[in-house]
Amino acid sequence: MTERRPTEGARTWKRRIERTGWGVAAVASLALIWSSLSHHGEMDITEVLGFITGAVSVWLTVKQNVWNWPIGIANSAFYVIVFFQARLFADSSLNVLYVALGFLGWYWWLRGGAHRTSLKVGRISKRSVFVLATDDCVPGEYSRFRSVP
Length: 149
Hints:
mainly alpha
């Protein structure tokens, strides 16, 4: 089965939609930052920056861009501060772990391939999707979660 290539018109349309999305996101982000800095909103600047870096990180991950790692690390670092200030120490500690795993993932992406080259990123096979989706559906597995009388 061959993969269909989009036409030039479809690619141009896709780029336009992507640019529009980036524009809307930039305006919304600036509005959130202004709202936070001028004390018109409920969110602290750290929360706003955490939200923005999280959204950008997800977008870059979908695009399979290596910059998702440093942006994701910044996102987790912002939430370490947010949760610590809220005295949610377990959530703060979990985000410290996410920062550490972010550095590890970034390293693997850049140097995890053969001979310490960049790691090739690809799509998961349909068989792997099926195995992962049905992994917790095995009848014997349910017994782990039943309470013991």
